[in-house]
């Protein structure tokens, strides 16, 4: 179905004035969304914009407090996910929700098997599964184990299962996050095929290049409110970014020149050097130098590859390509190797990858220090007490009780304990991924002050934050990421503002 035809077709979904309130917060405030048959529609917005909440309203996970949901001309009040599915709405989530221990056919036809009386007719079920696979141009054995196939094939199997219910609307939530370029191209062929068959597709992605490649129309949300709806081809990239984050684009110019600004010269050798460092399906190869006493910021929109860069530099992710050296010596890609060489990494997910809630503050601080020494060299109690006391005072951890369970501390104080853990190892380079996210203003200011002091004392710092002003406030240089590629490196200075970062992100041509 052509874009022109889709634009004039009757909407398959009309969400009007959708409002959802949680205790103390209005997650959606009068949001509208229209999906048309034969059209790929992007739902855009930063974290907390309301995208997930709106999808959950459409799929029956959340009940709306106000507004109307009309599907194929009939008003619906979804109270469970089955209601939405019965109306012809299917969802494929970022994490493939399939049973890897079952066959391809069993996954695709689950709950819709062909039966002969009370028994499942497996040959017929497998033949039917093959028909749905053929719709996606996927030629694999339906009886093969799902686990034997790549993530990309599993993603297509999830779409095939969604089509079993004769979906009028297909919601794809970050479907390309684990795919390489070739797999993305295959998926896009499938999406176009489904679009041409009249399916309305709601596409959620943080990859701007993909948005402009595959979508026909887009809706922008910010802070739970509808900002605007556009034909994708008519909305310049910079205006899209500005609408998402609420910044004016009037002063944006000279994009290409600023996207390739020259980094100032250093007399000494870099402390850490990455050459063509990358990982398939994670981040494209990039070069990066970090010098002693320097804070290098990493900026980009959500999903741009900031965290993937941090994990590769530290060695938390395996299977990367390229070369990584520290202090002139090639470094193996393993966290323990990094710790022993003097490289520390504080993850953005302090709940899952940082604190251990059922251990005390003292025990949490000791973890990395003990790991660097090995299991057979326990830290003497007197030495550990001195280290814990030193860093709890330096970071103003409150309450000042090292024997308190860390899970009972505020988010800001948990973050301080994580920093204390890594500073106790006396690192020469520290990688901080969103160290101030979700903490109060006072704790944020203290952590920013500490980062500046560490660099002044000669430590190299890689600083990642979604707050552009924070990156600029602290960094001497800023690496700019988009769509999991390094697209620019900017030397900070009086004339560099958050607008400079935004125009680099929006750069086209050679920076695309």
From TrEMBL:
Catalytic activity, EC: 3.6.3.17
Keyword Ribonucleoprotein: no
Record PROSITE patterns: ABC_TRANSPORTER_1, ABC_TRANSPORTER_2
Statement: the UniProt record of this protein carries the keyword ATP-binding: yes
InterPro entries assigned: AAA+_ATPase, ABC_carbohydrate_import_ATPase, ABC_transporter-like_ATP-bd, ABC_transporter-like_CS, P-loop_NTPase
Keywords: ATP-binding, Hydrolase, Nucleotide-binding, Repeat, Transport
Major enzyme class: hydrolase
MF terms in GO: ATP binding; hydrolase activity
Domain of life: Bacteria
SMART domains for this protein: AAA
Domain ABC transporter residues, every copy: 13-248, 257-508
Pfam families attached to this UniProt entry: ABC_tran
Protein name: Ribose import ATP-binding protein RbsA
